[in-house]
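Issue 218. Parser rejects a valid record. Input:
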Amino acid sequence: MPRIVVPDDFPSVLAGSRAEARLRALGEVEVHTTRAESAEELLRRVQGAEAIVNIRAHSRFDREFFSRARGLRHLSIWGTGTDNVDLPAARAAGVTVTHTPGVAAASVAEHAIALMLAVARRIPLHDAAVRRGEWPRGSMVQLRGKTLGLVGLGAVGRETARLAKGLGMKLLAWTFHPDPAFAAEVGLEWAELDALYARADALSLHLRLSPETRGMVGQAAFARLKPGAILVNTARGPIVEEGALLGALASGRFAGAGLDVFEAEPLPADHPLTKLPQVVLSPHNAGITPEVTEAGLLLAAENVAAFLAGRPRHVVN
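Output the parser choked on:
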């Protein structure tokens, strides 16, 4: 029976799920429900495992890990992002890495639109004011008829485009892999990044974190951004240069930002972003719903089953 280890189910989501039952039908399963506080502890937990199911991104699988994880053949990630994994090192060590694409797309897209609306309609500010007994007046931003600039058009970006179209927004997009058929389906226009920044009333990021995308939205991008625009990031924090973002927000050049992801997570309580009233914050939970959790965990387990059967799927390296 293959040894399968879940080293990082903290906070626990696997216990009692269909995914746990599926894994236990595949082999000898060991689940750890506390956080591994060091690289050595993570390595100790998985020694002798043929397959690992990675639940939380706080577990880091770097070159040293792969050089020391004897017998490891498969790393199954619950989620889409792989920025906690050194993919070339995994490949060099003969470890297949898989993920669970698409399962959170609808949930994250809903959250992106929710953040956009919360900034545009100033909902947190107005909620707080009404609770204080105030009755604020003042203009807000209507999204219907405005242009949404989508940077990245994977599963989440596509769902966001569909929802924004339902709101009556115009769609503008840039992506590494343009899809003419999808563009025709939703009626979006392709644009180079500089043109997109200059034309978008709202900018929504839907990219994986990679060497190519780290710091991609920085000072130069904010300088080109249309005055009064809204930034939404439900992808990864380091795609945006946080210092440049703070400078742009302080300048008053654009309306605000809705952020679910940050350079440092959890976001420190005294972080400058927490002091800005035009910024709406959420704790990297855009994809956390019961539906997404169940589907993602089960797909991660099925990826292990497929690998053990010699038919790996959803491979990222």
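Fixed in the parser; the record now loads. The chain has two domains: 3-103+289-308, 105-281.
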